[in-house]
Amino acid sequence: MKNILVAQSGGPTAAINATVAGVVTVALSSKNVGKIYGAKNGIQGVLDETFIDLREKIKNNEDLVLLSHTPAAALGSCRLKLKDLNKDKAQFEKIVEVLRKHEINCFVYIGGNDSMDTVDKLSQYCKNHNITDITVVGAPKTVDNDLVGTDHCPGFGSAAKYIGVTFAELERDCNVYKTKAVTIVEVMGRNAGWLTAAASLARVNGGKGPDYIYLCEPAFSTEKFIEDVKAKLDSQDSVLIAISEGIKNEKGQYVSEQVQSGAVDAFGHAYIAGSAKVLEDLVREKIGCKVRSIELNLMQRCAGHIASATDIEESKMLGMKACQCALEGENGVMASIKRISDAPYVVEYEAVPVSQVSNEEKTVPKDFMNKEGNDVTEKMMDYLKPLIQGEVSQNYKNGIPKQMILY
Amino acid sequence: MKNILVAQSGGPTAAINATVAGVVTVALSSKNVGKIYGAKNGIQGVLDETFIDLREKIKNNEDLVLLSHTPAAALGSCRLKLKDLNKDKAQFEKIVEVLRKHEINCFVYIGGNDSMDTVDKLSQYCKNHNITDITVVGAPKTVDNDLVGTDHCPGFGSAAKYIGVTFAELERDCNVYKTKAVTIVEVMGRNAGWLTAAASLARVNGGKGPDYIYLCEPAFSTEKFIEDVKAKLDSQDSVLIAISEGIKNEKGQYVSEQVQSGAVDAFGHAYIAGSAKVLEDLVREKIGCKVRSIELNLMQRCAGHIASATDIEESKMLGMKACQCALEGENGVMASIKRISDAPYVVEYEAVPVSQVSNEEKTVPKDFMNKEGNDVTEKMMDYLKPLIQGEVSQNYKNGIPKQMILY
């Protein structure tokens, strides 16, 4: 009989609870599983021994579906990075002590880069100390889609769908007036432009979508940007632009940082502006037409009501795969997605060594962006399109989606 | 045989095209209707004679449904306010000349305050000049819900649903970390707090929703605001706040304006910040905890994918009512909604003199807000709840909702 612990870490997404649901699904259906615990607030909850009995909270398939459709991390999250394995063993000793105290054999940790670092270190620690009664497995998650070792990341597809749908709607909104106007929409992503690229999905039904898409990978030139905008304004009234939060100049300096250094407002408050806001000010100054900036902010990562059915299904499958690996004693692996083909869209679920994943970052390859650095290519579209297919049947009550609250 | 012209004006909404669909539905089903035109960009399109033949664009019920579910103004919009009736007749003469040239007998104008001013002036002009072959009728629309003469406005219910759903999702997202953090969300509304009040709908299924809701009607005190936030941070980690774009101090000065006067950033750009951004800076300075501001921006008015089925149905009914009034020669009226009861929710459609509506503004009554000025009352909830009921079955293709493009 094995006992299972699952926890979530890093930024929340619309799909991360589906991965918990996948873990619980396998655990509930296995004769060899005893306790099914969730740790509250990630690895912090392991250190604090704040466990939630998931057999009590999740009774039936209805509960599993509701959990899968609830956005953000239902078990809570943390941003705690474990210390260096060779320098500070106390933290690892404490974790193993807690796991043994509660007779946990399988620990599934769901998260992004930092969380896979935790899986890597903890599984290494167990190997190094011949701890064979504990298996640590990772399940990927990040809206940024920047994990290596997997074709794409759970949570990304739903965020991409939100972004594609929102750009399609913004295009309609911005086109109603006969007035020259520029709308700059900032999308999450400091170092990887995947989410910003998803703005291109507004085009899949023949719409124009954003006129320009600037990812954070190529160096961003404000001069070229103003030239681009002017050129487009010559032939049309409304110009809609997608930019990454993390656009940087040639020196690698964030565009948003350049304005913030030392700037204060009339009250003496520090001026902290996003990249879209900085470019809004620039367009106002250099072109002088109507201009607005929009940040998609938290909504892009927690909009469960417009989640991608493909993403939710894949996220659940990865939780199932991770739980199976843990039950089979595959210490130190991460469940991952291997794409077999784009159209028809076929994937396989596999397990990769987490050491290959942790602390790496997958940015957008050059052939996914155009040469001018102001749009994506067909190759990017082919990659993105399958990930947003299908809509989730949310369970609405009183006009608002029902949610599963675990604590 | 009568010919019909319909046009849209003011800010777009997720429901304004449903009203056009309502007009066209009645027109298509009437034996006495010949041409069905749409004017591009509102009354400007009448002056410019840029007409769209809607019989060509809308062939069947499928087209009507698609139009109803497409956000923003499919006929385009304008912000043109007609001149004073007694001072400048040329504009009115031109409009009547164009309408007569195209043998238009019924003109339905869909919009908010300014648009109803157009309906009022134009219908008055016709009456004053014994023009009996042209009937001008208004249909209400505004996400702000600030029109008098109708229980509520088409477009508001869908925006309210987006806001309620989004706050429910943000609540989940903001609650994942064990860190003191304040999230301030700015909702549209310069002088009427209806949309901000809709944040309370996040509570209908037992959720906590926003911790505070500050509408723009009562005077806003930054001192009291900081006190409120501190009090809540004493007992919980995450504090979620809804504020109106138009919160003002005791002197009636916009909170956002106070910071903007004379402020420049390091590049010498003018500092233009929304009210949430101003309060974010204030919390950072006075409390020093993690704080972020979010603007729901254009998304709240164009999110057709999460439109309220009740709103879309009512918007269509009002278009039908307006078209019927126009066909029956009821010059100078606006189609409107009379609420008979909250639960069960029952409404009637009627016609009110547009002169009572134009240039008036319906703000939130005192008994819809709590005495402290930091939340809404049950009375507000009872008013809001029926308006967000039901979800629209969007027609998705390739993962993105299909849209009806009229030009």
Q: What is the percentage of strand-forming residues of chain A? A: 15-25%
Which fold name corresponds to the CATH topology of the largest domain in chain A? Rossmann fold
Oligomer: homodimer
Record the strand order, biggest sheet of chain A.
3-2-1-4-5-10-11
Tell the overall outline of chain A.
elongated
Total strand segments of chain A: 13
Given this structure, which CATH class of the largest domain in chain A is correct? Alpha Beta
Brief sketch in words of this structure:
Two copies of one chain form a homodimer. With about 400 residues, the first copy, chain A, is of the alpha/beta class.
Structure, described:
2 copies of one chain form a homodimer. With 407 residues, chain A is an alpha/beta fold. The first copy, chain A, folds into 2 domains: 2-155 and 303-359 and 391-401, Rossmann fold; 160-302, Phosphofructokinase domain (Rossmann fold). The first copy, chain A, has 14 helices and 13 strands. Chain A has helices spanning 16-29, 42-48, 54-57, 61-68, 90-101, 113-128, 156-174, 194-197, 222-235, 255-260, 275-286, 299-302, 309-327, 378-384; strands at residues 2-8, 33-39, 51-53, 106-111, 135-140, 181-187, 212-214, 238-244, 290-295, 333-341, 346-353, 396-397, 400-401. A 7-stranded mixed sheet of chain A has the order 3-2-1-4-5-10-11, sandwiched between helices. In chain A, strand 12 (396-397) and strand 13 form a beta hairpin. In chain A, helix 1 packs across helix 13 (309-327). The first copy, chain A, is elongated, with a radius of gyration of 22 Å. Chain A starts with a strand and ends in a 6-residue tail after the last strand. The model of chain A has no long low-confidence stretch (mean pLDDT 95). The interface between A and B is large, with 78 and 78 residues.
